[in-house]
Design a protein that fits this description.
elongated, 2 strands, mainly alpha, about 90 residues, two-stranded antiparallel ribbon, about 50% helix
Length: about 90
């Protein structure tokens, strides 16, 4: 019996579902007043601030990553920790 992953590979719904997921994810990032940059299946989240506001920005980034991770778990996806870094 084929798994769902095997069934969806090559499906006409695959690209549409991917776009729906990405659209929601970009909106979620912007909700935290951060800037998303998406390319293929890679998404970067960035922003800038004055040196005196670094702690506030770090809190926003942390909250955003927590919410993104939670949302991804809810749809049975996961963030790859080996490809996730904060600079």
């Amino acid at each position: 019996m084929e798994s769902l992953k095997d069934w969806s590979r090559g499906s006409v719904l695959g690209p549409i579902l991917f776009l729906l997921y990405v659209a929601y994810l970009l909106k979620l990032i912007k909700h935290h007043q951060l800037v998303p940059h998406a390319y293929a299946d890679d998404i970067q989240i960035y922003s800038f601030c004055r040196p005196s506001s670094v702690n506030c920005l770090a809190d926003r980034v942390s909250a955003c990553i927590d919410e993104v991770s939670s949302w991804m778990r809810s749809i049975r996806l996961q963030v790859n920790p080996s490809k996730t870094e904060v600079l």
